[in-house]
Amino acid sequence: SGLPESIVAAACARSGQRVLHVDSRNYYGGNWASFSFSGLLSWIKENQQKTDPGDECEDWKKLILEGEEAIPLSRKDKTIQHVEDFCFGDQDSAEGVEEAGALPKLPVLGASAAKGVSPGSEKECPVESPCPEPESQEPEQGTEPAGATEGNEAGTTSGSESSPGESALELGQTEAAPSETPAQEPKKITYSQIVREGRRFNIDLVSKLLFSRGLLIDLLIKSNVSRYAEFKNATRILAFREGKVEQVPCSRADVFNSRQLTMVEKRMLMKFLTFCLDYEQHPEEYQDHESSTFAQFLRTRKLTPSLQHFILHSIAMVSETESKTLEGLQATKKFLQCLGRYGNTPFLFPLYGQGEIPQCFCRLCAVFGGIYCLRHPVRCLVVDRASGRCKAIVDHFGQRISANYFIVEDSYLPESTCTNVCYRQISRAVLITDQSVLNTDPEQQVSILTVPPVELGKPAVCVIELCSSTMTCMKDTYLVHLTCPSTQTAREDLEPVVQKLFNVNAEKETENEEGEKPRVLWAVYFNMRDSSGVEKNSYSGLPPNVYVCSGPDSALGNDCAVKQAETIFKEMFPTEEFCPPPPNPEDIIYDEDEIEPEESGLSNSAETKPEPSAEESSGEGAAAVTME
């Protein structure tokens, strides 16, 4: 139930197909999931032990008929490696401490409730009062007017302001996490407090932000899935230069209000950013440098070293040694186009964590009749030898379930299928700290920081720092995510950056003077498989109606997952619209002969379903089975 699979499931259910979505795990999201602190500790223990589940029963092999063969699926998750966690406080003091009661949280559809949801129940969701319209809005094609859709349905909350139009829930979240002034003496946070307040944490396995004009935001608005989530602006873009963390001016107002830049630098920066917005109209400016790196191109523009650093690492956020000029110009243009839609930065973050997004699409699928089963492993795919197509699955109960299409997450495929696949790895670290990396603002901040490579051959590290008003950590703490492509183990890749930005000396006094590094209270490092970019023909022996979804990639945004989901859906149903807006209840027209048999309850007759093809009508199972 990762993000690509959940989007495909929602799109299939929305187009009238019958969908069964099963997951061997006991939680939604797969490697896109979010955990409470105790949930993450359980996840760490599970991945450190890596016990072999074993084969409980061989009876399922009797269900393979003559003229069929089975492709056994992997029952051991090998996507997570080198998991190491560290406590920088008194861990013994937490013995016997249990988590406090659960936080009030937006309702998310669980497996037990999925079957009972009908299309009519969608209108029972609470309607929020309108939020203020984002700046510089333009009507989006295929959606409602921007004022009604982008401002209201996306549910964004400002980083430091609240308007009379915001809902009571949003105001309550702000009150739950009051801002701290830099002059306040930081409170000493103990490990036992973290354990006790563990339910206030929502810790993502994958760290991403949403570009305000990215594919995922457009899909959330178009499909109306945005009603199931709320978002907060990323309020600061930071840079790490000469051993110090600085704030990067992004918008025109930020540039001219900045005290870091001289008046000459301000003019130079505005001139270059204006060029990047329509660089395609001036090919003579960059054609001679297309084979050069973007860093080399910036040097030819007569920019000062500080401006080159800001543009390369904090605006374009591309590699200094590998990214070519056009890649850097495209990234800079994308950054600038996303400014101003929902705030002064291009990014949004979902309240309660990135793991909410897959669940939102699962909810849409369930609303339109999809069935969800967690803790439900699948033993094998059943392939018809004559046609070469997959016709069914066999689950761990020994049940045989027929379907026309099968969507499988990469980690389920056996090693024999992946012999020609070359996987990349992502290095991840999650820290709980006692204060911000740049503690200069009285308001709570959501910050993104790119740390340049610490040595030659190492990648740049993306750092995302979340405050408690994002509903991802307890009061008086910050949650810090570090991500980069792997060159070694996650700890070897990321620990040098952690030591540059934070105090990891557990014995040092916790009283921080102004300018002193934040203290790390707890940390975990792990490597995650990056299967994005693997072509389907790289997998050997897969039937043509089996589609493979990849896990998370190392990019900051979610465009890869959305593109992959749309590609899979269009291959299965080329004539259907991808995730169209759901109909308004008042717009549904019932025929008189359809209303009569529905007196005792809802039936499927009110839904418009495409006529099945000869191939589809031959099976009596689900139209699509997605497995994560």
TrEMBL record:
Name of the protein described by the UniProt record: RAE2 geranylgeranyltransferase
Segments of this protein annotated with the region Disordered: 113-190, 575-628
Membership in a protein family: Belongs to the Rab GDI family.
Chain intervals with Low complexity compositional bias: 139-172, 619-628
Residue stretches making up the RAE1/2 domain: 426-554
Cellular component, GO annotation: cytosol; nucleus; Rab-protein geranylgeranyltransferase complex
Biased composition (Acidic residues): 588-599
SUPFAM superfamilies noted in UniProt: FAD-linked reductases, C-terminal domain (SSF54373), FAD/NAD(P)-binding domain (SSF51905)
Keywords, in A-Z order: Cytoplasm, GTPase activation, Transferase
